[in-house]
């Protein structure tokens, strides 16, 4: 049973956390390089929000949005 838990430890510490160890070492060299992945995620989220708002405006302008308060049965 000990070998099983040591295998789990090896998987997480040596394999799955290797990218995080790389980022930790990279932060000592360049802060911007270590935080590049954060900037990429922020750009993806910002573009998704802009796309979502554009789609909301399109549906609102077309009048296809049902804004009646009785649209759902639990609101009656």
From TrEMBL:
Pfam families membership: DUF6341 (PF19868)
Keywords: Glycosyltransferase, Membrane, Transferase, Transmembrane, Transmembrane helix
Transmembrane segments: 28-53
Keyword Transferase among UniProt keywords: yes
GO molecular function: glycosyltransferase activity
The UniProt record lists the keyword Transmembrane helix: yes
Name of the protein in question: Uracil phosphoribosyltransferase
